Amino acid sequence: MEDKKDILLDNDILVNKSPILNQGTPEEKRAEILRYFQLTWELDNRLYDSLKSEEAFYMRADPLRHPLIFYIGHTATFFINKLILAGVLNERLNPKFESMFAVGVDEMSWDDLNEQHYDWPKLEDVRQYRRQVKQVIENLILELPLQMPINWESQFWVILMGIEHQRIHIETSSVLIRQLPIDEVQKIDLFESCTERGLAPENVLQKVEAGKVSIGKGRDDALYGWDNEFGSFKSEIKSFNASKYLVSNQEFKEFVDDDGYGNEKWWTEEGWAWVQYKKCSFPFFWLKDGEQWKLRLMSEEIEMPWNWPVEVNYLEAKAFCNWKSAQEGKKLRMRPKRSITVFTIVCKFRINRNGSKRLEISIWNIMRHLVR
Ligand SMILES: [Fe+2]
Fold first, then answer.
1. Whole-model pTM?
2. Domain 10-184 classification at class level
3. Would the N or C end of the chain have less CB density within 10 A of its end CB?
4. Model pLDDT for residues 53-69, shown as the tens digit of each residue
């Protein structure tokens, strides 16, 4: 595979922190950003080691998304296109690739199939292009003028944008790999699945005290941010109850067993249309093997871990809340926007102290709790 000459430890590849943009000397920051870039790039490379064959790169894992050959090119192209837009680079490396890999499949409805045909290039040509881009970015990190603090005006802001964009796509590509046929993928050592498997603890509602919340970041914030993170919002939150744990596979199974997917009354209009379209009766990554339930992970199928959080979309979560409300005689719903802010602060605290991996876990918590 590409770029294996760099000696990067697995643990560093998996767990690292976004650079603090207003501390340290320019040369310290330059070295830190170079390492952050290299670790991110390597993680992106290693992810694709999960595919067994070149053919798998051209399979459409999800009808609403491009095949993975697009994404392996896209994360590299994004750097070049943004650097050209910002006037940091004047010349393209590969105009054809930088057009073909520029735009993904976005803003499509779940029933809006895209049948457009693309003449995708060979995998080795895309890998060669990635090697070129990596060299360009490394040279820029070493040579561009760098003044502290790094902010919106800095050329390094564009580099950071490219790195954070790549990190987003590492997550989305892993989900696409999870959607490929199991025979097309292989387990690699870097990605271990969680071994804490068993029955779920009983879930209860817990009181969250009323309080004031303030979210948003200023332009002088110490961390890189996307445009929708800036600005400020303050609010007073009334006390509310939230479930102690995320909704587990075990809890959700009760909804499945009660024919939740076959009963229109739990679903919104859009949700019911989705169920009819998908013809599903349980969550997407669940597998039924006789009387046994299994769960599809990125590159393996395991006995159902009943204590893991269930993975469902908004429409399924909404139907589950309606069903659960009827069961318990209480109004249960997904967390409204203002209540989310309470936990957004927890997220920020965690990212500063523990790094990006904990942030992902915290966001997960936000999306899957129930509130009363
Ligand atoms: Fe993208």
1. 0.83
2. mainly alpha
3. N
4. 999 999 988 888 889 99
